[in-house]
Task: structure prediction
Amino acid sequence: MNPLVATGAGESDTRTALSVNLNKVALLRNTRTLTIPSVTRAATLALEAGAAGVTVHPRPDERHVRAADVHDLAALLKDWPRAEYNIEGNPFHNLMDFVRAVRPHQCTFVPDDAAQATSDHGWDLAADGARLRPLIDEARALGVRVSLFMDPSPADLRGAADLGAERVELYTESYARAWDTADHETVLGRFVDSARAARDAGLGLNAGHDLNRDNLADFLASVRGIREVSIGHALIADALESGLPATVRSYLACIERASSQAGIGR
Result:
């Protein structure tokens, strides 16, 4: 068995779900005054290919996903009752308006600045916890699961549970950068420890950022109990070569390969 594999209380034997982030589809569409490529069509293709859900991150400047997309996807997903809708973003910017209007299955609170190209850090709960708590409470009262985007820091993950979050999304860029380098096992070990701390605190585990077909199976085989991965940039880039349905199936195959490597049901 891989010595870095996380085990312990609360380990999930449920197969990891794949949520396809559609932001880059919207970004390409927005380069022209046209409706192609269609965000809802991309969502349909991903779900038909076996994805468990879709993710969008509508930023205030609408540089990719727009408010209309959020509502169009909500309408589409009424025809997919088993699919999960995850809306992520900064709850101090525009996210809560969408949570109130759409009531997705999950909202992922991300501490990004409005001008950031992409998310690049997790929450500092010492600085922001008091402001987050009432918004977490509100989302949960609306029937929306709350996940906090977090760096792999065991102590901070315990704090997320104290605030009332139900899940955390581990920010995996450091893992992706270290994958297949001399630092790989050291960095992976931080995620293993963080996953254990999160599970011990009663939190569900998601993961995302720079995961791809090369590094995904290794991560899931080592960091046990990941319930959902949200993947956008790499998946859409691969889809330009292979087509979206085939690419979704290839990522699902990575998840299945992780099950074989870990020797457990997923």
Observations:
- The first strand starts at residue 17 and ends at 21.
- Confidence is low (pLDDT under 50) at residues 1-13.
- The CA atoms of residues 17 and 228 lie 4 Å apart.
- The longest helix spans residues 244-262.
